[in-house]
Amino acid sequence: MNWITNYVRPRINSIFSRRETPDNLWTKCNECGTMLFHRELSDNLNVCTNCGHHMHISPRARFKALFDGGIFSEVKVPAPTPDPLHFKDQKRYPDRMKAAQKQTGEHEAMLVVTGEMGRTPIVACAQDFSFMGGSMGMYVGNAIIAAAEEAVKLKRPLVLFSAAGGARMQEGILSLMQMPRTTVAVQMLKEAGLPYIVVLTHPTTGGVTASYAMLGDVHIAEPNALICFAGPRVIEQTIREKLPEGFQRAEYLLDHGMLDRVTKRTEMRDELITITRMLMGLTPAVRGDLPAPEEVEVAEAAAAVQASADLPVETRKKK
Question: Cβ(218)–Cβ(194) under 8 Å?
Answer without folding.
Answer: no
